[in-house]
Amino acid sequence: MSNLNHYVRQLRPRTESYVPHVDRIQQYISEEMTPAAEIQRAIELAELIDTKVASIDAQTQSKDDNKNRITLTQVVNDKDRIKFAALAKEIIDGEDDFENINITSSRSDKDYHFRHVDVSRSIYVQLKPSGAKGQVRDDPNELLAGIFSCLNYSDPTNIEELDVLIDLAKKNISKSQGHTQGQIDLFDKAYTNACQAISAANAMKKMLGGTADKVFMTGVKWPAEVEKFKRDSYGMKDFNSSDIILKKGKMYFGVSLKKKPSKTAEDPTILNKAFDTILNGPDLASIKEELLKKKEEFYISVIKQAMKEKILNNKPVNSKNWKTFLGGGKSGTKTKLGNDYINKSLKSTSSHFKDMSDIIKSNEKLIAESLINLVLKMDLKDLTKNNFMFSLVTGNGRYGPKIGAVIDGADVYDVETVVEKMDKLGWSDRDLSIEFNNRKVQAFDVGATAAKLFYVVKVGGMDIIKIELRYKGSFTAQPQFFAVFTNKFKALLK
Known about the structure:
Layout: H1 2-11, H2 21-32, H3 35-52, E1 59-65, E2 69-76, H4 81-93, E3 98-100, E4 111-116, E5 122-129, H5 141-148, H6 159-171, E6 176-177, H7 181-185, H8 191-208, E7 214-217, E8 244-248, E9 251-260, E10 271-274, H9 285-308, H10 339-346, H11 352-362, H12 364-376, E11 388-400, E12 404-414, H13 415-425, E13 432-436, E14 452-459, E15 462-470, E16 480-485, H14 487-493
Parallel strand pairs: 2-5, 6-7, 9-11
Antiparallel strand pairs: 1-2, 3-4, 4-5, 7-8, 8-9, 10-16, 11-12, 13-14, 14-15, 15-16
Helix pairs in contact: 5-8, 9-11
C-alpha cells in the first residue's frame, strides 16, 4: 500500500501538513471536557507522575489556569525539588500520551511542563519547598555522609570538633560528583545533619573495609560513571533508590540514606506507592476497572449526602463531574466538599476502604510479593555481577548545646543479607501473606479513629513489613502504601 501511495502522489500531488499526535487528539478533547474536569484530570496526571517517582512524596494541588495553561503546585521536601523535576521529565519522555514542554526560565530545573492527550491545555507544575515560604533548602546530609565516607577522623564530641570536621569536608569536596552548591552552603551550622551523616559514614566505611575513593550524588542527575546502575522496575523510575554511590577500587556501593535523631526514634517510611499501581498486568485490568467504579460510586454517594445535609449546593452529580466537588480544605465551601467531611465518611462501615481491603484479600500473594519487591529491592542483587552492592543505611545522631554531638550506631541492611534471610524464611517458595494488623482499628470498623488500613506483610509466618494504606493529599487520586520494617525483621537482619 505504501508503494501505491508513492505513485499516486507522483500523478496527483497533494499538500500535506504534519500535526503532532498530542495536538491532533486535543482538537477533539477540548469539546468533551469542561474546564473544571480538565483541571481535575491535570491533577490526576501530576499525581500519576508522583507515583512513578516513588522515593519522593509530593502533595499536588491546583494553583490557577487560563485558556492555554493549567498551573499546579507540588510540595516536596526542600532537598528533593531538582531531583523530582528531573525524574518527572524522564517519565514524561517515556510515556506515549505525554509530551515534554521545554522551560526556558530560571526555574527550568525546579519545575516541569507537559501536554497530555486527555487535556486541551498544557500543564505546568511548580515544585514548592515544604520549608519556610520562599526559602530554598538543600539538605546537606547526603553530601556530608558521602564526603565523610572518604575521610579518616575521630568522632567529634562538641561543636568545636564538629566545625573542624565540617571544614575538612569542604576542603575535600573534589571527592564528590553531582552535588549542588546549595548543599555545600548549608554545611555550616548543620550540626544535627552532620552527626547523622557521621553515623552513616562510620557504617559505610566499615562496609567498604576502609575509606571510599570518591562519592557520586544522584539527587539531580546520575553522573555518567554510575548511570549504568539506574533501574526502572515495578512502575518506579527510581527503583535503584541510591541517594549516594561510593566507589572503592573497582566496587560501587549504592546507599539509600535515611536519618533519625536516635536509634529508638520512629523509622522513616521506605515506600510510598499508589494503590492501583500495585495492580499491574493484564490479568488485573478488570480489577482496577472495578475498583475505580466502586470509588466513583462511593464519592458520589458522599457528595449526595452532603447535599442533603445542605453542606453542598444541590447540583447534579455524576460519573463525569464528581471530582469537581472535592477538595474544599478543612471547612469546605458550598461548592467544594471539605476534607474533614470526606475523612469522616471514610471512617465508617460504608467506607471505600472496605472495597480496597476486599481486593487485597483476593489478590493476597500478588500484592504481598509486589510490596516486598518494592520495599526490599532484592532484584538489585543482580547488580553484584557488575560490581555494585546496594544497602539501606539510616544514620542516627543529634546535636544540642547541652548534650553536644551525639553519634549513635547506624542501621544497615544490605541487599545480600536481605536476600539470604528472606530465602531462609520461605521467599523462594513464595510463602507470603498480607494480613490486617490486629493491633489497629481499620477504617471501616466501628470506632475507627483514622482513615487508614493497617497491614503486616509476612514471609514464612514472620512479620516483615508494616503497611499503612491512606490518602496523602487529593482524594481524587488513589491512596498510597507506606511501609517500614518490623522490629522482628530488623532483628533478624542484624
